[in-house]
Write the structure tokens for this entry.
Amino acid sequence: MTLKDKSQIEETCKRLVWAIDRHDWKLALEQFRKEVTLDYTELFGGVEEKLLAETVIERWSSFLPRLKATQHTLSNFLISEIDGDALCYSYVDGFHYLPNDKGENYWNVKGFYTQQLKKQNGKWVIHYMKLTPIYQSGNLQLLTIAQL
């Protein structure tokens, strides 16, 4: 794997969270393979899901805009190659803000992402994404409040 590949992989992961925070759903969709496995089980419970990327974007776009602001930052990238695919670990700091009368106005999640990417038509795209939370602070019910 070349330095150019590693740079493009990191850029794909950053572009995804940038697009989410800006509600640029077309750009977010472009960072995924047609089918993606999402694993948020350590944060929300349930089971990992294999979904069409469009379904992922439909879900995110149905509730994230209800928040006043979000900011997801990634750092400390570790990227390696496994059988021609990429494995990318990065720290994530996800800040969510919504003024409300049911508790704190923010919910912050710190942890790390495990993402797997494939090269498709000359571009690295995400086909697996797992969040491993390390710490949460603020109003853990903020997403529920946003959906009321």
DSSP finds five helices and six strands in the chain. The chain has one domain: 3-146. Residues 3-146 form a domain with the Nuclear Transport Factor 2; Chain: A, fold (CATH 3.10.450.50).
